[in-house]
Protein: HTH-type transcriptional repressor CytR
Amino acid sequence: MIKLKDIATACGVSVSTVSKALSDSDEISSEKKKEIIEKANELGYIANASARSLKTKRSQNLGLIFVDNTNSGLGHEYFSVILNSIKQEAENSGYDLTFISNKIDFSKKSYLNHAKYRGCDGVVIVSADFHDPNIIELVESDMPTVTIDYEYNNRTSIISDNRKGLEEIVRYLYEMGHRKIAFIHGEDTDVTRQRLASFYKTCEELKIVVPNEYIKSAEYHIPEYSFYATKELLDLPNPPTCIIYPDDYSYMGGLEEIENRDLKIPDDISVVGYDGIYLSRILRPMLTTYVQDGINLGKMASIKLIEMIENPKSYISERIMVTGYLQKGNTVKKL
Amino acid sequence: MIKLKDIATACGVSVSTVSKALSDSDEISSEKKKEIIEKANELGYIANASARSLKTKRSQNLGLIFVDNTNSGLGHEYFSVILNSIKQEAENSGYDLTFISNKIDFSKKSYLNHAKYRGCDGVVIVSADFHDPNIIELVESDMPTVTIDYEYNNRTSIISDNRKGLEEIVRYLYEMGHRKIAFIHGEDTDVTRQRLASFYKTCEELKIVVPNEYIKSAEYHIPEYSFYATKELLDLPNPPTCIIYPDDYSYMGGLEEIENRDLKIPDDISVVGYDGIYLSRILRPMLTTYVQDGINLGKMASIKLIEMIENPKSYISERIMVTGYLQKGNTVKKL
DNA sequence: TTGTAGGCGTTATCAC
DNA sequence: GTGATAACGCCTACAA
Structure:
């Protein structure tokens, strides 16, 4: 591998001159710069990130935490969209992305240690158990971090606006004449709590009565749970006119039970999903769902993290809400 | 940050002794080792990967190339499963994963340069334009690489067995009594060519006649193309009894047209997908499809790459076929 | 405008 | 069994 010294020798100048020339320092005359840069290209010089970061304490590398909790992890389109967007935006700013695990070996027994070991300038936490002490340790350290869909005190977070999501859904259903609205929610997480609270609050504002039997608990991204929940809802003596599912995928479970009973969507029962994955658009009838803006979430995460890294003094942590929008498909009937 | 020197001072030994003790060298007495390790833990020592790799020329870090060609990229479940599996296996062997782009800046104008810049020990090429000169340069360099679903001369590749996939599908359809089989294939790639060749070959072996009108071209993962292809096939004076789709997602496009015509699957028309994504299992009727073993593909990619890195002399490049299996759903009618 | 020298944290060689 | 020392490639005062 060609190094600065080789270029220096070839050009008959010193190493530091080469270093300065390549970093476009204006201490170096433009002719010399040109000559050196040409020679560097000719020799196929490639900098050595390790040496550079050893010296500068900066790596231009971001850590990425992506814990596959639900076993759907990366397979969940919401997250893969976010990840892709983080990657794109980071690359645009000259940062690379390295996955950070908490694999146990001498120097990487925690996320924080792992990130430090790799010299990450900051870490994006996309999906993780936010109550894991390891994650908390990381977030509370002096390592710049950004979390997605979870908020810590005094830390920057990028949040998909779950309250607004449920509010919009409920208000739309209200407009469409629905008063008997069931909500199948995901497992108990902060996201779920926000959605649930917003659901109740909006119903209350609209004077919609929500019987306890209309609230069912399922798990995100596992259609089977929603299948059973749907069954229970449809068996009710006074069944709902519309069911809100935890996510678009889970709706597929509900759909099965609805078809089992030869009910037609939306004529016999209306349904609403959440996420707005690709599938929701290609299903027929097209699914009415709240589209989360994964691209923007990922983009903001990168932007804010890099901002924090590059202006450590002046940066003030913030909570950024990313709103989505209601995709009005054809699964809600006008009553 | 605590460094070796701090531990050395604290223990009253030299830096090199600490270094050796922490790497469990048997030059050091076990008491001293124990003492040093304890002190290191106590002080919260974390090694510095940059310094280490500067010295050792090894980074324990793998590059990952994942080009979002089709704009579905990471959103394509097949790839996200592979990626996740690569990650898992790499972590198990103590390697990290860094995304490698070909963003243009002074020292990273190509994939190869980027990988060298980051000191990657090797690179997994998951999804990319395999005819891109940049990719070819990388593969032909002395950087260890593994490609997925594409084979270069004398390079290790992990291949999902597309020939076997189509052969199994066609033979199954034959058993089920089908003789009029249409095949909607994806855009012209090596994968597509293999599938197509295998389709023709198997039909020939079984003496199934394939009229040209039964072969339609679409694009992977874009249901709309398959929607139109399906329309054309069903409009044929002598339509097929079964349609093979480019992938499970594309089938959704076909499904729409089939439902538009009030045809029932499988009674009026049989269908087969490809990939075996989660969706295929939750659809009703459950989709008959060829399940690609993404987990194994990813796992083998990591294993082989690491093998190559750790035994550069003795390693012989190989082509590893990963077979899947036919998921017999309920979308093919027995004729 | 250019060059010299020191050091970032680690490992490896060699001497003791 | 332990320690001194050099070197990995780069950057940056500071000197010239």
User: Anything to note?
Assistant: Residues 13-17, 20, 27-29, 32, 51, 53-57 of chain A lie near DNA strand C (CB under 10 Å from a C1'). Chain A touches chain B through 54 residues (CB under 8 Å).
